Amino acid sequence: MAGPPLEGPLSVNLVFVLPRPKSRRKDVHHTVKPDLDNLIKWILDVANGILWEDDKQITSVGSTKIYGEQPRTIITVMKCQDC
Fold this sequence. Notes:
With 83 residues, the chain is mainly β. Helix content is 13%, strand content 35%. It has one helix and three strands, in the order βαββ. It has one helix at 36-46, and strands at residues 10-19, 58-68, 72-79. The two termini are 23 Å apart. The model has no long low-confidence stretch (mean pLDDT 92).
């Protein structure tokens, strides 16, 4: 993201794609550590001053953690109109 941190109320959606161990080749959903709430908190804190001014601006969060071949975190941020 280029530019200054976003201002005002925000909605955030997070998708955590985590590496798949050999023992879980058929699983889609990641049901072991790290805990989803810890991943969410880490991203919200790390993005302070980068994506948004402060995570207190976030009024809604959607999230999921799954296995995938290419580990990554997908962050979608939207300015709220009526949230």
